[in-house]
Amino acid sequence: MMTIFLKLIILSIVIFTSGCASQFGAPTEPSTLNLNYKVSPKNSVLIRAFDNQKETLLQFSDIEDASPVITEKGKKHLKYSKIGHYIVVTGIHNALDVKTKEGVFSVVRLIEQHKD
Q1: Which of 9, 83, 96, 104 is 20 to 30 A from 66 in CA distance terms?
Q2: Per the domain annotation, does 116 fall within a domain?
Q3: CATH code at 47?
Q4: pLDDT tens, position by position, 11-40
Q5: What is the pTM (predicted TM-score) of this model?
Q6: Adjacency order of strands within the sheet including 69-71
């Protein structure tokens, strides 16, 4: 039951972030998504990263053959699942290293500074 629910949530995220949803009057960036992530170096493999307040999602151009190794900045390897062009890592992570056959990419969650 939980697996179906998770797949429906991810499918919704894919639809909203792909731009298709705007054709149907839905917002392209729901307020539940945090898009404040930096991927470096810029590349055509790991397109972007974001979170949905529960998981960290990594969008790839093609992950059919990819089996990236994802670590939390020098710590343990993280388990993930593949859904479409996305890798879903449980939890919110401030800094990740993503190693693919094309190279190693750094993913950093940008923290907004609130002015009081």
Answers
A1: 9
A2: no
A3: 2.60.40.2500
A4: 556 555 554 433 333 333 567 899 999 999
A5: 0.69
A6: 37-40, 103-109, 95-100, 69-71
